[in-house]
Amino acid sequence: MALASLAAAASLLPAAAARSRVSLARCRGMASSSSPSAAAGASAAARVGVVQMTSVGDLDANYATCSRLAKEAASSGVKFLCFPEVFSFISSKDGESIKIAEPLDGPIMQRYCSLAKESSMWLSLGGFQEKGPDDSHQYNTHVLIDDSGEIRSSYRKIHLFDVDVPGNMVYKESRFTTAGDTVVAVDSPFGRLGLTVCYDLRFPELYQCLRFKHRAQVLLVPSAFTKVTGEAHWEILLRARAIETQCYVIAAAQAGKHNEKRESYGDSIIIDPWGTVIARLPDRLSTGFAVADVDLSKVEAVRTKMPISEHRKFDSVWKTSSL
């Protein structure tokens, strides 16, 4: 494509600034009734907010922070507010998160449903400790609540963080968490949303599936990245996901020291479909939120100027060879 055409696409973007559940293995499922070009009922532009916070091992304290931020965001005209992974609770001792884990109709999540209704705001709540299949496991669940306080969709984190980060803690999420096996995209007034959680970010095939199989326009990445991995890869990975899928990316992040054992990188950001960061907090440690307008016409403009969906070959049979 000519450079002039690419420049034209870039000029359309700010310079600075129904549900579907499918098998991951096959990346397919129920057909959606929504239009392929845009989510049903989605407005051309909508004000969204991305939260940065430092959750602790106190459910009430974390809720007080979330409630305050939701009310402040609503006063700023935000209609969709995205919270980070483990927004409601971060344990300081082994086994604590299992003890507080609840089903989605339990009192913890219902409290947040009431918050959404009271604030007349959609909420993205990433990384909730949902009660698992047995007493020793939970699910790491991303929950989407609408402005009437109803749970619209939920996604159980597929890729679990089992790593030994150099210079940091050894972490084995699978020891107490059961992985999900379902890709989730859902229509909303803010576009078609693709739900993910934290470590999923390192697996581009999930985001390709959300974009090309399930027509996502906005990708949600609530996270609690470690300081070491965040410094190295956080923004790079997020911008890559935005560029390769031509989607908005909203990435809410935990920040700072939660306890003596755990520290998160921070840097909550919103990225447009051209890969430009259009909103972020002034620093990586403060509690607050950043605001941006998500304009679906810019998604379509980028995809029209650079039609990668027409050029991709992954749905074809490829010839392979080995030496």
UniProtKB/TrEMBL annotation:
Classification via CDD domains: nit
InterPro entries according to UniProt: C-N_Hydrolase, C-N_Hydrolase_sf, Nit1/2_C-N_Hydrolase
Coiled coil spans: none
Keyword tags: Hydrolase, Signal
Pfam families: CN_hydrolase
Gene Ontology MF annotations: hydrolase activity, acting on carbon-nitrogen (but not peptide) bonds, in linear amides
Signal peptide interval: 1-18
UniProt domain CN hydrolase: residue ranges: 46-296
PANTHER family: DEAMINATED GLUTATHIONE AMIDASE, NITRILASE-RELATED
Protein name per its UniProtKB record: CN hydrolase domain-containing protein
